[in-house]
Amino acid sequence: MNSLHWYDITGFVGVLLIVLAFFLQQVGRMRGDGLPNQLLNALGALGVLLSLLFGAFNLSAFVLEAVWLAISVYGMIRGARRRAG
User: Fold this and answer.
1) For the segment 29-67, what is each residue's pLDDT rounded down to a tens digit?
2) Helical spans, DSSP H, in the chain
3) Are 47 and 68 in contact (CB under 8 A)?
4) What is the pTM of this model?
5) How far apart are alpha carbons 64 and 44 in whole angstroms?
6) CB–CB of 51/61 below 8 Å?
């Protein structure tokens, strides 16, 4: 069995954060357009991206997570502008 590297653990934590955000939204414990959900998704996507960059690269997974991160950041910016104005 191969030992896990830091980027493997980072990727697993990222997946956990994304799944946790989805689960909490589905059970009504978190709003889909709220900052906590967007942060969990952004941090999760970042974790998976790091695991792909430093571990075994997969282009389709990289594109998915890059878009996931971009949408999460967009949501955070949109929410901040809405709260400010």
Assistant:
1) 999 999 999 999 999 999 999 999 999 999 999 999 999
2) 6-26, 35-54, 59-84
3) no
4) 0.92
5) 12
6) no
